[in-house]
Design goal:
Blueprint lengths: L1 E6 L6 H5 L1 H9 L3 E6 L12 E2 L9 E2 L1 H12 L27 E11 L2 H7 L4 E5 L8 H7 L2 E4 L8 H13 L47 H19 L1 H4 L1
Helix pairs in contact: 3-5, 4-6
The structure holds S-adenosyl-L-homocysteine.
């Protein structure tokens, strides 16, 4: 899967994208990730990408023209110079703002909540573009012209879309073939089955006087499966009854 990330903090992604399974997916070629500095599409000496809100109020808003031009360059694999400072798409561009475009996710608290099911759906795409907002957010016209989807990672407000984009990338990458190895599959994890996962135990058998449920060492796989299912249902009923409904 190809991932393009648009952000004013490209350095932020160095750790998350190179660590553990995400790093391996990159090395293995499962993920082809490209991080783009939004400021490359600014046109002034100070590389400004924001301005004061029309109508007044606190904070700054990211400029729609910068976002539209950045997206058109990234979608069409063009260098920043090809689109920066323009008010129309580049000649002969395949993907254009407001028209046909790759799946482009704009991270925002008012977006569609990210779920395991939504992540699995996104994992079927060949290509995703992730747009990370900052400040008070992005000019509404860029929401309309750039995003195919608005995505939220939960009902709270972050400083920026970078953390949210990393969350989306991890949730999606777990669904890509080969990433989890044979041993683990997203099929029996929390939410996929509509339930939270059952409790897990490993050695040692005793920790501070606490043992493990005897069924797990009984050797009876049927009994283990039944116990795990009961536990999953019980946990879900206690903590997330909304998932059972
Ligand atoms: N004023 C906005 C919040 C801006 S937060 C509002 O009230 O809705 C700055 C940026 O952080 C946003 O543009 C968005 O990209 C990102 N962000 C913050 N919270 C987020 C969340 N829950 N999910 C996804 N992105 C989020």
């Amino acid at each position: 899967m190809r991932l393009d990330i648009l952000t004013i903090f490209p350095g932020w992604f160095e750790g998350p994208l190179s660590t553990s399974l995400l790093g391996k997916a990159g090395v293995a070629g499962t993920l082809d990730t490209r991080v783009h500095d939004l400021r490359a599409w600014a046109t002034d000496r100070h590389r400004t990408v924001d301005d004061a809100p029309y109508g007044g109020g606190a904070g700054m808003v990211m400029r729609a023209d910068v976002w539209v031009n950045a997206a058109e360059a990234v979608w069409n694999d063009l260098p920043p110079e090809a689109t920066a400072g323009r008010d129309q798409p580049p000649e002969g561009a395949r993907f254009v703002a407001g028209g046909q475009r790759p799946r482009t996710l704009l991270l925002t608290p008012r977006g569609t909540p990210l779920t395991q099911g939504f992540a699995a759906e996104l994992a079927a795409e060949d290509r995703l573009v992730l747009c990370c907002g900052r400040y008070e957010g992005i000019d509404e016209r860029a929401h309309e012209l750039v995003a195919t989807d608005e995505v939220s990672i939960g009902d709270y407000v972050l400083f920026g879309g970078e953390v949210a984009a990393a969350v989306v990338i991890e949730a999606v990458t777990r669904h890509l073939p080969g990433v989890m190895g044979n041993a683990a599959s997203p099929a029996d994890e929390s939410f996929t089955s509509g339930l939270l996962e059952y409790p897990q135990f490993t050695r040692p058998a005793q920790v501070r006087g606490r043992g493990i449920p005897p069924v797990l060492t009984s050797g009876d796989h049927g009994a283990v499966d039944r116990w795990r299912h009961e536990q999953a249902v019980e946990l879900t009923r206690a903590r997330r009854p909304d998932l059972l409904a």
